[in-house]
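Researcher: Structure for this, please.
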Amino acid sequence: MKPNLSRRRFLGQANCAGISSLPLLNTLLNLKVTSTIAAASNTGSDYKGLVCLFLSGGIDTFNVLVPRGSAEYAEYARVRGAIALPNSALLPINPQGLSGLQLGLNPALTGIQSLFEAGHAAYVANVGTLIQPVTKTDYNSGRSLPLGLFSHSDQQEQWQTSMPNIHTAKGWGGRVADMLKSLNTLNSVSMNMSLTGTNIWQAGESVFEYTVGNSGASLNGYDKANTNRRSTVPIRTAAVDSQLAFEYQHLLTEAFQSQKIDALGASGLFTSATSNVTLPSSVTFPNTNLGNQFKMIAKIILSRGALGQNRQTFFVEYGGWDHHNNLLSSQAAMLPEVDAAVKAFYDCLTAASLQNNVTLFTSSDFARTLSTDGDGADHAWGGNHIVLGGAVKGQRVYGNYPSLTLNSALDVGRGRLIPQIAVDSYFAELALWFGVPKSSLSLVLPNIGSFYNTSSAAPPVGFL
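Model: Predicted structure, token format:
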């Protein structure tokens, strides 16, 4: 739901507006102009959905995408020690255009293996937060490094904002929504839908996340259909209606009432739209929290017409990946839930002929050290991430899968690898596919110029 406008926030916004710098004002004006241009150049007949699966805690992606050739696996096993997966257990994949390197997936990822081999999924290797390209010498001198490198909170923020040199509460998904929201015919319900509450990625200047649960959206304790005298719901409902009917003169209270009215209207529209949706009978979502979240995303996507939305973003956070110990057993328990939910989601999109219209991508705080803490690993830097969808140029690994030899040119200590692909390039590929004009990428990703020439005919990475 839309956030309530508190007195502190209202005054804070007013003060910030009063001292805004010209560059910030110029950016906001450009976003508005670009939004108008985007609407004028798009018929609105197409639909695109962008799904961020955020694996918070820092997932060990080098036990997700693993070398399995004899020499490379031997080095992997030597470096990883007790947390190395058995070579015989790895699920083989056959990436196109990758010569001399054999790779496999964690044995829990049978569904993703099938999607990869069918050309519907790809991996982006060694991607992470960067201010500009850095070398090991730069790292050792502390030059041009992201703020709070190896810190959970800082790196989660940077993966969601794509701004590694400053702290901000505005995400790149929110900036995209600010730019493209006019492509939607209705804005009663935000185009940014969160299945796991408030997040930075979807926070923009004028667009925020609309939070829903696995069973839909509702205002807690408000239900006009409930007439049970033994329930407190009718009392709460009457109290809310009474508040809405009362005329307030104070600006902030009026704003609060307006927010509440909007929230009630949005909840009603959302509930009406999604309750009339029938998912394809050929697909069964796993009865897990993540499975039910992706089931709700599928229902929202199938409700896009009733919601008047040609563009939607979705945020799902699955936490608990900070595996300083018990890494193998923890991943063995958690990865199957991810695999089953993602596979069912893609199968549902395919059954509805929408697989080309939705792209899913993973994010996380960081990868983990190649060396072990015993039966776990510590905070690291660059890692491997999956992109999935019918528009993805799949069965490929983009970027260079790094050498896992300790003390390599990319290793800044204990197998913390300097990223070779910046999150800016990763996100630029997604933003362009979603509809952001190439000439406006810097408004969404202010740091993109350090990694990509927006006048180039080549894509930032190439997976879409």
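Researcher: Any notable elements?
Model: The two ends are 31 Å apart (CA to CA). The CA atoms of residues 19 and 275 lie 46 Å apart.
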